[in-house]
Amino acid sequence: MAQTMSLLLILLSLSLTVSNGAHNVIDFGAKPDGVSDNKKAFLDAWAKVCSSTQPASIYVPPGRFLVSQADFMGPCKQNSVEIYIDGTIVAPSGYTSTTKWILFQYVDGFSIFGGTLDGQGHSMWNCKTSGSNCLEASTSLTIAQSKDVKIQGLTSVNSEGFHMSIYQSSGVTVQNIQISAPSNSPNTDGIHVQLSDHVIIQGSNIKTGDDCISLGAGSRNVLITDIYCGPGHGISIGSLGSIAHEQGVQNVTVSSVVFHDTTNGVRIKTWGKHYQGYVQFIMFQNIVMYNVSNPIIIDQRYCPHNNNCPNQNSGVKISNVIYSNIRGYSDTEVAMKFDCSPSNPCQGISLQDIKLTYQNQQAKSFCNNASGFNSGTITPPSCLGS
Ligand SMILES: *[C@@H]1O[C@H](CO)[C@@H](O)[C@H](O)[C@H]1NC(C)=O
Ligand SMILES: *[C@@H]1O[C@H](CO)[C@@H](O)[C@H](O)[C@H]1NC(C)=O
Ligand SMILES: *[C@@H]1O[C@H](CO)[C@@H](O)[C@H](O)[C@H]1NC(C)=O
């Protein structure tokens, strides 16, 4: 009898997974009322798919699902967990005391399709802009220590801090993402990558109050392509060199990007501190700039409020950076700026077919400690030494 019963249960659970496909969070008790905390239901659904020995998926139907801080932990028993989201996942309003809202950690092989994350960041932004002592803002979606991850068609709005962070992960593809937060929302970076390898960010639309995409230390083999950025602070490598023993950044391609009303276009930024590091084999190509304050910029003197770094030279070596086919207009006179480290001059900077104007006139370029090559037509005229 007991045996028949357990066989029946096994058959029943098999048929549930097979016939319904995905595990609906509603079946785990989730309520799309925008008020009840659905953390437990989501984590229970996760536990179910993560412990399944066959590919398994979660379905989040339309509606507003409030979910407080939640860690979706691996490792899972197989490497094909999929999450299909039609609804909106909402953070608790009022800022929280965690640095990560939704975290996926130690997961090898998972995908998220669709969905909206609403970070409800307003009270955090108000706190920060009022100059009070605020708790640390949380990142809406963090992928950490994971492998073989795909995020497709996700929308992220109004994060408290970063919208998305990819940390110590490998093989992460982010496609067709929409990110939006007001241009004056502090530190709401779009996508931040750090200590990660083989990352592709493709076909995304990012409007936010800080960097659209930022690549921190240890970003390697990164392809960023078909991006619209603006408003925002542009696409940035850095800031690097604020601490000792940082990993370098290498093999990054940024291609087919439109910047609109951004404070920077393509930027490489290091602290004016002596800590060693490097940025090498970087390619910026096929880029259009509409009203960008610093379309092309390398700044190795970053030292906000002159704290702990005045008069130090950056120890980060920048080399082999190609800028190719970059056009449009600058919002400031200096459209091209290479302000490199006097002790580690930039080397192998290559300019090919650049046309940047300022108020329909010729813009200017500025170089300090930078050398390289020029080819094709370059306006403003290049100031690189050879
Ligand atoms: C550079 O990065 C791209 C994108 O991840 C990758 O396809 C390519 O193999 C890398 N090149 C080298 C030399 O590692
Ligand atoms: C250019 O962009 C800045 C923001 O970086 C904005 O304040 C300004 O209005 C824009 N100018 C034009 C002409 O659109
Ligand atoms: C760096 O630039 C400064 C100012 O242009 C110049 O005086 C100095 O010689 C340069 N240093 C090197 C190592 O090229």
UniProtKB/TrEMBL annotation:
Q: Which UniProt keywords apply?
A: Cell wall, Cell wall biogenesis/degradation, Glycosidase, Hydrolase, Secreted, Signal
The entry's active site is: 233
List the Pfam families: Glyco_hydro_28
Establish whether keyword Hydrolase is in the entry: yes
GO biological-process terms attached to the record: carbohydrate metabolic process; cell wall organization
Question: Which compartments does it reside in?
Answer: Secreted, Cell wall
Q: Determine the domain of life of the protein's source.
A: Eukaryota
Q: Which InterPro entries match?
A: Glyco_hydro_28, PbH1, Pectin_lyas_fold, Pectin_lyase_fold/virulence
Q: Does the keyword Plastid apply?
A: no
Q: Which GO terms describe its molecular function?
A: galacturan 1,4-alpha-galacturonidase activity; polygalacturonase activity
User: Its principal location?
Assistant: secreted
Top-level EC class = hydrolase
Signal peptide span per the entry? 1-21
Recorded catalytic reaction(s): these are:
[(1->4)-alpha-D-galacturonosyl](n) + H2O = alpha-D-galacturonate + [(1->4)-alpha-D-galacturonosyl](n-1)
Q: What is its EC number?
A: 3.2.1.67
Task: Provide the function of this protein.
Answer: May function in depolymerizing pectin during pollen development, germination, and tube growth. Acts as an exo-polygalacturonase.
Entry similarity comment: Belongs to the glycosyl hydrolase 28 family.
This chain belongs to the protein called Exopolygalacturonase
User: Which species does this protein come from?
Assistant: Rhynchospora breviuscula
From the broadest rank down, the organism's phylogenetic lineage runs: Eukaryota, Viridiplantae, Streptophyta, Embryophyta, Tracheophyta
